[in-house]
């Protein structure tokens, strides 16, 4: 019997029991849809978390925090480490920053604020891909860049209450309203004797707004020469107050770097650079490492959800088993005739396995369509329901459900496998049917 004839025979038999077959297909479709929708939650949340992480962090950036020695202690990084990182293969740039260890006061005309001053090596910052919202990078020692939120803290010097009671922020009427570019701001630092030292600085650039909404960048980024000038004036490492110079190893403190970031040429080489640094006992963090952990967590979650969803298909397989068992009983005369004219038992078995597979494929196809429709409705309606219920706005771009092709193929594969297994026993019984009993409907 040709394959086309087998399919025609299966369709004819299915049409004889439309209602029963329809209910079996419906149960299979519901099980398949349940599996896909359930697992799609894991895929959707993973996609949202990964995209959010990638948007908020530079994927080629590796933070290096220090190096562990043989005794398990961590030492601060120095310029020797920076030079070593710069010589590594596939490294695009190595940035290094130090913070002045007191809160300088910055004055611009009649406006003043106290914010952190951070040293930056501007050539490496530029090579790393850092972009400015306005202006240019400093070219001389007394040129600086300010953070995007610096102007929101530069307030008028007055005895009036400048803070808004509701927001706790400085009232807009007291803020500096003009452009900061090319303006000279005076940075005032003090020593242990409260003697003041004023350093004039020219603002030549403004940083872009941080990618994370909750972050504020109000720092002033100064050159290493300014940092050294502050150290010479205070006589302490980083201009720190409240300590005596002899309490610290001046050489070691001067060489220490607070913040070092390594930037790879592209995403593909980040992992290899990270592995090499870890092998040399450097304490590092990279978004690639975080992605690996996140993906591992969601992989376990998705596997669990797929397993739970598979149970629904297994339950539906009971209906398939029942349908195929009844089909064997009802078609006993047909089976007897086929065996009487010399039909191979394998052919009879294939017919029933094909019928159960046919039911599974149709059920899976319908289930996929229902799953996509459900996923669309979940992503559209669930955020609105949650916002109305809890009164809180959800993060922009949050996706509750996502159905990739891989999930569809996995679900169809599971559905097809379960339906075939469900039809094995009835198909085997059909091949073992006695011809004479089948002809007399004594099966």
Overview of the molecule:
With 443 residues, this protein is of the alpha+beta class. The chain folds into two domains: 3-56 and 293-439, no CATH class; 95-263, no CATH class. Helices cover 51% and strands 17% of the residues. It has twelve helices and 14 strands. The chain has helices at 3-16, 18-56, 79-87, 122-127, 224-234, 250-255, 270-279, 287-330, 332-340, 345-390, 405-431, 435-439; strands at residues 61-68, 74-75, 91-99, 105-108, 111-114, 117-120, 132-135, 143-146, 155-156, 184-190, 196-207, 220-222, 259-264, 282-286. Strands 1, 2, 3, 4, 5, 6, 7, 8, 9, 10, 11, 12, 13 and 14 form a 14-stranded mixed β-sheet that branches. Helix 2 packs antiparallel against helix 8 (287-330), helix 8 runs parallel beside helix 11 (405-431) and helix 10 (345-390) runs antiparallel to helix 11 (405-431). It is elongated.
Terminal CA distance reads 24 Å
The quaternary organization reads as single chain
Helix content class: 40-55%
Low-confidence stretches: 248-253
Query: Total number of β-strand segments?
Result: 14
Main beta sheet strand tally, sense and closure: 14 strands, mixed
List the helices and strands and how they pair.
Elements: H1 3-16, H2 18-56, E1 61-68, E2 74-75, H3 79-87, E3 91-99, E4 105-108, E5 111-114, E6 117-120, H4 122-127, E7 132-135, E8 143-146, E9 155-156, E10 184-190, E11 196-207, E12 220-222, H5 224-234, H6 250-255, E13 259-264, H7 270-279, E14 282-286, H8 287-330, H9 332-340, H10 345-390, H11 405-431, H12 435-439
Parallel strand pairs: 6-12, 8-11
Antiparallel strand pairs: 1-2, 1-13, 1-14, 3-6, 3-13, 4-5, 4-10, 5-9, 7-11, 8-12, 10-11
């Amino acid at each position: 019997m040709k394959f086309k004839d087998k399919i025609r025979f299966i369709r004819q038999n299915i049409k004889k029991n439309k209602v029963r077959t329809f209910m079996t297909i419906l149960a299979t479709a519901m099980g398949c849809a349940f599996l896909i929708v359930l697992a799609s939650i894991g895929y959707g949340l993973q996609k949202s978390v990964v995209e959010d992480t990638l948007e908020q962090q530079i994927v080629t950036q590796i933070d290096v925090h220090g190096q562990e020695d043989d005794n398990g202690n961590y030492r601060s990084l120095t310029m020797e480490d920076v030079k070593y990182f710069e010589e590594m293969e596939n490294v695009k740039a190595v940035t290094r920053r130090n913070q002045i260890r007191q809160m300088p006061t910055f004055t611009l005309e009649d406006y003043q604020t106290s914010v952190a001053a951070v040293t930056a090596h501007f050539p490496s910052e530029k090579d790393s891909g850092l972009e400015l919202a306005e202006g240019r990078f400093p070219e001389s020692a007394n040129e600086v860049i300010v953070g995007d939120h610096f102007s929101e803290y530069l307030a008028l010097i007055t005895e009036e209450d400048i803070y808004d009671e509701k927001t706790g922020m400085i009232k807009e009427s007291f803020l500096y309203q003009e452009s900061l570019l090319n303006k000279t701001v005076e940075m005032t630092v003090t020593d242990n004797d409260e003697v003041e030292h004023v350093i004039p600085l020219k603002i030549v650039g403004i940083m872009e707004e941080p990618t994370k909404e909750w972050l504020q960048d109000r720092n002033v980024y100064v050159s290493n020469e300014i940092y050294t000038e502050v150290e010479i004036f205070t006589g302490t490492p980083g201009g720190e107050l409240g300590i005596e110079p002899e309490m610290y190893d001046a050489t070691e403190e001067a060489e220490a770097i607070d913040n070092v970031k390594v930037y790879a040429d592209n995403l593909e080489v980040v992992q290899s650079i990270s592995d090499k640094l870890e092998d040399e006992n450097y304490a590092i963090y990279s978004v690639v490492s975080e992605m690996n952990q996140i993906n591992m967590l969601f992989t376990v979650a998705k596997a669990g959800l797929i397993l739970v969803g598979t149970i629904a298909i297994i339950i539906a397989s009971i209906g398939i088993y029942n349908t195929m068992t009844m089909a064997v009983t009802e078609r006993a005369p047909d089976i007897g005739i086929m065996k009487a004219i010399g039909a191979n038992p394998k052919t009879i078995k294939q017919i029933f396995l094909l019928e159960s597979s046919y039911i599974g494929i149709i059920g899976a196809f319908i289930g996929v369509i229902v799953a996509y429709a459900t996923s669309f409705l979940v992503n559209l309606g669930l955020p609105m329901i949650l916002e109305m219920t809890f009164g809180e706005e959800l993060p922009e771009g949050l996706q509750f459900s996502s159905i990739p092709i891989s999930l569809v193929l996995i679900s169809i594969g599971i559905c097809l496998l379960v339906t075939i297994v469900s039809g094995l026993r009835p198909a085997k019984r059909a091949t073992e049917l006695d011809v004479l009993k089948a002809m007399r409907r004594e099966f």
